[in-house]
Design goal:
416 residues, alpha/beta, 7-stranded parallel sheet, 19% strand
């Protein structure tokens, strides 16, 4: 039996031990995990430092280093996230609907765990803890495969969680980390249909595309965010500047940061210089503009067609000028990754048209795309942002990690 097969077998066995756990037991365990993470912060930070040294040697950018870096404040934040999941209502056992049919059968549909969840993700070590907390709360075992860049950090975080599980008399294999960071191990995980019920990739476009192409396990697609902001001809320009600067510069390495700017031609001459001046006070951004927009910037470069479809995860932004809101919608729908899109406008008609017409998981009016987040949406920690349409869409909280089962009770009925 291979390494991945053994992990899958262990996860299946462990998942069955979660069925009998009540909400109180799960919540107590999660709160203890939060405490133990804070108490073992020095050990976790020491391992994270090893990842940072290796990442710098491999020439990783400062922005990506920020995704990888942990400190006491971030560990405290991770622990608080676990506590917040403990405070959320447990969806397992919730009745979705109940009724008696014409045959006198009492039919109840309840929420149940998926079983075994696998996750392949990149860089950010907090993801491993968020994923565990959501999976555990919903009664799922989870197998995590993080990137090579964060292997020491992830190993340390999962070791703390497994120790807490053992101290509580629970099966530590409800969470396992694939410590083999080879592509071969990842591909074997994608093929493990006998053990894994659903696979969630979280990372860049190349990772997600690879998983979609090679996985035999059902996949929930997440993460890639070529997020647009459209500044309409009726927009409050000061508001638009604030929204774009926030969405682009607050944390450019995350999937809900804005990558593309679409501007109505009527306000472009007034808006783009104002934006360029404002953003320079926060952090320089390289604008990659179309031919018409290029002349309105002091410093910009001509965009390529590829730029309009790129998730930069950097201080780079494409710019496109359009003549109408309809053209803006067509442009965005032609380049979207179905994550988060926004319009800045004072027109109710344009706002409603935009929200109804844009094909994305989250569509904003007069707000930054940076709000697409499980915590912000009141879902607690998220396991990812689903950009597909089946089962789950948008920030994936607890309910996204459940299925349903029909419970039918009769008194001798037979079908004639």
């Amino acid at each position: 039996m291979s390494y991945i097969e053994q992990m899958g077998k262990n996860a299946q066995k462990a998942s069955k031990t979660l069925i009998s756990l009540g909400s109180v037991e799960k919540n107590n365990l999660l709160r203890q995990v939060a405490k133990d993470l804070v108490e073992q912060a020095e050990m976790i930070l020491a391992e994270n430092a090893r990842d940072l040294v290796a990442a710098k040697e491999n020439g990783i950018s400062d922005i990506m280093l920020d995704r990888l870096r942990l400190n006491h404040e971030r560990i405290k934040g991770i622990a608080e996230g676990v506590e917040q999941v403990a405070d959320l209502q447990d969806p397992i056992g919730q009745v979705v609907r109940g009724y008696t049919n014409l045959d006198g059968l009492k039919i109840v549909q309840k929420r149940v765990p998926l079983g075994v969840v696998a996750m392949i993700f990149e860089s950010r070590p907090n993801v491993s803890v968020d994923a565990f907390s959501l999976a555990f709360k919903t009664g799922n075992a989870i197998i995590l495969r993080g990137g090579r860049d964060a292997i020491y950090s992830n190993t340390a975080l999962i070791a703390v969680i497994r120790q807490t599980l053992v101290k509580a008399g629970m099966d530590a294999d409800v969470v396992q980390l694939v410590e083999d960071t080879s592509h071969a191990a990842a591909e074997e995980l994608m093929q493990a249909v006998d053990y894994i019920d659903v696979l969630i990739p979280r990372g860049g476009a190349r990772l997600i595309q690879t998983v979609k192409e090679k996985s035999k396990v059902p996949v929930i697609e997440t993460g890639v965010g070529n997020c647009h902001i459209y500044v309409d001809d009726s927009a409050d320009l000061e508001m638009a500047v604030d929204i774009v600067v926030n969405a682009k510069t607050q944390r450019p390495s995350v999937c809900n940061a804005a990558e593309s700017l679409v501007v109505h031609e009527k306000i472009a001459e007034a808006f783009l210089p104002k934006l360029e001046e404002a953003v320079a006070k926060v952090h320089p951004v390289e604008f990659r503009a179309d031919q018409e927009a290029l002349r309105m910037f002091k410093n910009a470069v001509l965009a390529t067609e590829e730029d309009y479809s790129t998730e930069f995860l950097d201080y780079i932004m494409s710019v496109k000028i359009v003549k109408t809101v309809e053209e803006a919608v067509d442009w965005i729908n032609g380049h979207t990754t179905h994550h988060s899109e926004a319009i800045v406008t004072q027109s109710i008609a344009h706002a409603e048209f935009f929200q109804e017409s844009i094909d994305a998981a989250a569509v904003y009016v007069n707000a930054s795309t940076r709000f697409t987040d499980g915590f912000v949406f009141g879902l607690g920690a998220e396991i990812g942002i689903s950009t597909q349409k089946m089962h789950a869409r948008g920030p994936m909280g607890l309910e996204a990690l459940t299925s349903t089962k029909f419970y039918i009770n009769g008194n001798g009925q037979i079908r004639r």
